[in-house]
Structure formats: C-alpha cells, structure tokens
Amino acid sequence: MTNDKATMNSILVVDDELSMREFLEILLAKEGYTVRCASNGEEACSILGRETFDLIITDIRMDVVDGLGVLRKAKEVNSETPVIIISAFATAETAVEAMKDGAYDYIPKPFEVGEFKKIVRDALHKKTVSMVEDEDYLKKGYHFGCLIGESPQMKRIYDLIIRVATTKTNILISGESGTGKELVARAIHEQSLRSDKPFVVINCAGIPETLIESELFGYKKGAFTGASTDKAGLFEAADKGTVFFDEIGELTPAIQVKLLRVIQEKTFTRIGETQERTVDVRFISATNKSLEQEVMSGSFREDLFFRVNVIEISMPPLRERVGDLPLLAHCFLVKYSKELGKDINKVSTYAMDILSKYPFPGNVRELENIIERSVALEKSNIVLPQSLTLSNFKKVRIKEDRRRTDIGPDGIELDKVIADIERDYILKAMEMAQGSKQGAAELLGVTVDSLKYRLTKLSR
C-alpha cells in the first residue's frame, strides 16, 4: 500500500543492466515513488543537468561514466541529494572513495528487498542517525539496563530478571564468554531491594589460588607473613548487597567447601581468627562451563551446585540472535564515536552484511571490540567493510558455515536459509569471476540466463 508522502519523492535509477533497471523501477513504483531510469552514467549525468531528484540509486560499474561519476555529478548539482551505490562486487577502494564523495550508503547486489526498502525510506527522510538523535534512539525499549536487544531470547531474559530481582534466591547465569553474564547480574542487582547497597564482583579465574581465601574472608593482623593490619574481605564489603562470582567453576575444591558454608549459614571466619562473623548477601554466579559436567567429573561439588543454581538464566550466543546485531552495533558505534571524537554515524549495509555472516566466537564482547577498532580506523563518516577486523572470517568457508544443521528452540526459516546459501555462492562466484556473469555461471555450473534469473529472484 502506497502513501501520499511516498508519491512526492522522485528517484533516479542508474544501471546498465536492463533486468535490474526494470526490477528497481517496478519495486520502487509499487512503493509509490516516481521513478526515472538511465541505462548508463552518461545518460544519468545528462538527466541530472536538467532534472532534480530526491534520491539517486546507481550501479558502480558502468562503462565511460561509472557510479562514482554519477555520484559526483549529483553532488555538484545538489550536495544534499542522497546517493545509494549498489554493486555485486564491491571493493574496499571504491567503497572508501564513494563514501568520501558523499554517498549515503554502499550496498551489495543481490540485496534483500525488505532491507533495501528501509534504506530507501531512511535516505529519503534523511534518517542518517546523528549524535543528537542517538539518545532518543536508545530509549525506544530495545534495552534493559546495559543489555541491548529486542530478540525473543533477550525479551525472555528481561522477563526473568524482573521476576527474580526482588527475591533472595541465588542465581546461576550460564553462557559462553562475552555474552553479557555480568550485565545480567548487575541488572538483577539494580532491580532488587539491595540496589543501593554494594555490588561486589569476584573474578574466580583472576585471583591467584594462594590469595583467594584472604580476599574472600579477610584476615587478622599477624595471621601470616605480610599481614601487618586487620583486613576485611570481599564478603564483608558486600554486606547487605550482592556478591557476583564470575566463572565460579574455576574455584578450587578447598574454597568450594568454605563457600558452601557461607551460602548455607551466612557466616564465615577471617583467617587467623576464631570469631564467626555474619554477613547478609545475595549470591549470583556465572559460568561458561557446564557445571553439571563438572559435578559429574568430580571437579565441582554437587551440594554447592544445587545451592548456587536455584534459578538458572542461560545467555544465548550472539550467533543465535543475529537480529540484535544492528542495535548492538549502533550502540557501540555511538559510544566509540563519542569517545574517539569521530563523526561516524552508521555501519554501511555492505559491512553489516559481512557482520551478519560472521560467527562471533567472542560474542557481544568481540562485536564491541570490532566496532571500536572500526571507528578508530575509519576515514569516512560510515563504517565500511575494509575497517572490519574479523580474525576468523576468512577461515570460515561458506560450505562449512552454511551446512550446519543446528536448529534452535525457536526453529529456522528454511526458505531464508536456502536463499542465503544461494546468495553467498553467487556473490563468491561473481567475485572470483571479477564481475563476469559468464565466468560466474561457469563456476556455478548454470547458464548465464539461469544466473540472471537467480540474481533477480534473490532481489525479490
């Protein structure tokens, strides 16, 4: 269904491939836009000399005058006109040049129609997110405390946080490294009746075995060499508040025994003392291991496991909530653009496409590092593919990545998975054939007409 606002917008489409021009013309006209087409860069520049447009969409590779030439002409006529560059074989060099010359976005062919429509709407409505708009953007209900995401998995996490926060129940947060387990623990504390009391983090893997007992329980002056004064431990520091045991599975059996007593009796003794001390704390623990397996192997006490795991919150890895990727990336982009004094306002569609296929072994923490590096390295006002540092991405072959048969609890969209596989192979073949449809078709074992049909089909 079209709207009156859309009919007011005029778009110039520039592509030397007839099927793509026709496809874009039909697609955009259905959205209510007025569409004008040019079959090459020279014709487009001539039209731009006589007519004005609200948006220009141009292919990058064309003879004589390419997409960059069209971009420069458009900016010469009206610097405010947004220009979207599209290409089936984008390169870092042309992407950088396009963004430096003022392109609104640089997106790959074939593209997902829904995403393409959104990019067009945003370009027409000047929705390149500015730093002023970011505060409002981050208040739209996509986050809970410092947690970001609107996927079904994260909404379930938010619901659990609210339900358990006001109880005294001990919580175990499980999940891979980098999934945000500490953020969940902090959110529970902040929503609890103890929110105005201390939140003490105990890094079980980071405290040397010889020091952890004195750090937890404290000690009396003279209890051991170097104990020159009385010292309170972390339990006393957390009194009336929350203790968060990060990676509790790393605790030694001896410390596990003493921790069990604290959890059960709420009492402990400083090293070198006989006097029992009472403490009122809420226990939240986190692990990236399977504590059930640790119990079975004998490295973690079963009785302690049942004490810390009254309610378990399982954090999903980032690869299972890819829909949250744009929100997370934007959040980190805002953060590091401000910190590094950069004016970078978005992640290009082509860069986001690459991120969406990356497995993120380091989860959200790795994404944050990637965005921080990208902001630091980026020379334009948009994050481009060449600024992404994906250490394992080139080692992940499409065949291996796409033939996984894992099905999560929410199921999969089979047609979309198959379409993604086809899309990846076509893009790879086009890249290997340096943009030649004949060469790509031979690599894929199909006819040129079949390849053209598939390209058009994937854009629907």
What is the strand and helix layout of this fold?
Blueprint: H1 4-7, E1 10-14, H2 18-30, E2 34-38, H3 41-48, E3 55-59, H4 67-77, E4 83-87, H5 92-100, E5 105-108, H6 113-124, H7 131-137, E6 143-144, E7 147-148, H8 152-165, E8 171-174, H9 181-191, E9 199-203, H10 209-217, E10 218-219, E11 231-232, H11 234-237, E12 242-246, H12 253-265, E13 267-269, E14 276-278, E15 282-287, H13 291-297, H14 302-308, E16 311-314, H15 325-339, H16 349-357, H17 363-377, H18 398-402, H19 414-432, H20 437-444, H21 448-458
Parallel strand pairs: 1-2, 1-3, 3-4, 4-5, 8-15, 8-16, 9-12, 12-15
Antiparallel strand pairs: 6-7, 10-11, 13-14
Helix pairs in contact: 3-4, 8-9, 12-14, 15-17, 19-20, 20-21
Strand order of the largest sheet: 2-1-3-4-5
Topology, number of strands: 16
Mean pLDDT rating: 84
Task: Please name the CATH architecture of the largest domain.
Answer: 3-Layer(aba) Sandwich
Integer count of domains:
4
> At the third CATH level, what is the topology name of the largest domain?
Rossmann fold
CATH class of the largest domain: Alpha Beta
Could you give a quick summary of the protein structure above?
With 460 residues, the chain is α/β, with parallel strands linked by helices. 46% of the residues lie in helices and 13% in strands.
